Amino acid sequence: MNTRKAFFLLLMFLLSVTYTQGQQSIDRYKAIFTAPPQHVPTIKTPDAPLAGNGDIGITMGGTPDNLCFYIGKNDFWRAYPVYPGGIALPGGLDITIEGLRNASYYAEQLPESAEITALFSTDDCKVSLSAWVAATDNKVIIELQSDKEQVVRLRLWAAEGNTSVNAQGTEPVIWVSRSFEKSELLRWPTHVALAMNTTSETLRLTPDKKERLVITVYTNHDIPNWKEKAIIEAKQVTDASIELLKYNHRTWWQNFWKQSHINIGDNYFEKYYYQSQYLFACSSREGKFAPGIWGPFITRDEAAWGGDYHLNYNYQAPYWASFSSNHISLTDNFDQPLLDYMKAGRMHARKLLNCRGIYYPVGIGPKGLCTSMWPLTPDEMQEKYATRENTIDDGYKFLGQKINAVFSVGNMLMRYYSTYDRDYTQKVYPYLLACADFWEDYLSMENGRYVIRMDHFNEVMPNKRNGGIWRDKLGDFNSTLSLGLVRMLFKGILDMSDFLVVDKQRQAHWKDILDNLSEYPVGILKDGRKSLKNMERGPKDREIQPSGLNRVSIHGLILPGGVAGPVTDSIFNRILLDDVEHWSQKQRMADDWGNTSNNGIETCYPGAVRVGYPGDEILANMKKRIEMDVYPNCWIVQGGGGIETFAAVPLAINEMLLQSYEGVIRVFPNWNRRKDAAFTNLRAYGAFLVTSSLEKGKVQKVKLFSEKGRPCKIENPWKDNPVQLNRNGQKVDVLYGRYLQIPTSVGETIELQLYTNH
Prior knowledge:
The chain is of the alpha+beta class. Among the domains are: 3-256, Beta-galactosidase, Chain A, domain 5, CATH 2.70.98; 667-754, Golgi alpha-mannosidase II (Immunoglobulin-like, Sandwich). It has a nine-stranded antiparallel sheet with strand order 1-8-9-10-11-17-15-14-13, covered by helices on one side. Helix 1 (3-23) crosses helix 3, helix 10 (409-419) packs parallel to helix 12 (480-500) and helix 12 runs parallel beside helix 14 (551-557). It is globular and about 75 Å long. It starts with a helix and ends with a strand.
């Protein structure tokens, strides 16, 4: 045996040892399936076992005797500006095993190994299956093994229709392709090829021998010679190459799970915490196209809302938990579609509103694509929207909202405050500046304050429900959503401007906007309680009654707005907390606290955490909401969207354990102190990684790793008791007070513990 091969085998052995150990921690949160999926194929959320690498996703549909692996890819778009444009289905693999007719169904979705495993059994035979998408390559691997001889029929297919052009071949391996090109309205071409490491559509399983199918998947966005690449790599597959692929795959996922960890003594929520992060890591990856509403788990071309990037929260929300969970790399792909649309956004602002800066529609796609134009005939408009008018918003769906571009500033600021990465800040600063340009022009100074007209709290559009009558719904004045996000924008660009030392001459105007922007509208209820309004006045100056904090206003004030909280404004926070306390009185159905069945579980529950609603009650209500509508794959289902729910559980729990969004780090800020808990390497604003534990009602040590050497302000975990400060393992000082101010150096580890005299 040569030295290189021996070394490789040693690595594989060590991997298997550490992997087995890791399985005990993460794979105990596996998702279990005891029946075939019922919602595959679908235009929305699939209920099947899922796996992916942040670019390619597989959805295992069908029954044991007729399995179908749907293969989705984040960069395979039908680049039409109208539905059924949007994300498209490349194809899939059908696996037929007649010997498994009426077989029992058992499958697992394993987060540690990012793998689907299954066992299908009859009285006569058992067939085991493993399927995974290589974390570091464009390959889907399916492994089959049987205890009895079985004949397997295979069909590799590309989806058809919607003006696509298809091709297929069997030399030198089975391959299929699908293309969108040279069609009316198409903005840019998209091609995909799938190739499988065989020339035969029949596979024979024999006892104790594992058969491996490898499907390579490439688009023209991966590489110019996409088809040749897929075919050549499929032809070159060997057992050794698969083993190396598996090693790299497991290594990637092991490193992913090492980035942070929580332990709250609650298996139910820990399962959803880790499975949610698994599903998002399957959906998003640096260097790849950003995921749309359904991620790469596409099983039909007609994905709801085109599977596009919906900018009034759907696109942004899936990323929110990744910042505090220290999975920053998963957020790398977020910005590019927004930057690519800036040219069109400037055109919209200038042409439609005579403003500088950028003005974005609700729906966009990659590479500057608008997915929400309405170039429909009057008859088509009448059929779909109950109006014959086809030039609404100049053919774009702005839905009455001017704030769509600023929604995404929240994610950019979350990353900026979490990392203080100069290169990243320089990359996104022009986007913030363009947003500032727009709002400098769009805001009106009236009676000594800046006001916002005609930016709407809710979407406004013609549809069959309102009989096409929509213009009388226009006219919101000072929406809480808009006021909060605009305040977030100007606070953020001031901070970035200081950090980059640019545009100092513009800061006075930005500060003036912040100082004189209208206050959030608050009203008085019949019982005398102050409560939030959705807007100051409605269309045609209609009086608006307070309706309390809800999903949409949370976006402006808390997520992503971050401009309200118990530290910065305790009086206003008390009003918001009172509103949350009355959510149970406004439920449209039982167990739907916060009215999140259609949208908002990832918004309302973390929002309730931040304003200080009791953590145990939040978790109790969240459990009821999850069980209202959740699939076996741990995908929490809601009517108005898809992968945004992946953020709900991890974000809420992270916020209970650690908060930093008001310039102050707080450990266990909204956690029941009677319940032990611990976390490792959660990320705080200021570019700190924080580790701490709570035992028997007392915070133990708090460890902070400073990535950028920024000053740290932390709320005293032991109230007003003195605190021992250690730097890099050495006692250096004793600190006093409610808030501890600690200078740090790059790469320094700070430890805090309760001071004792011994």
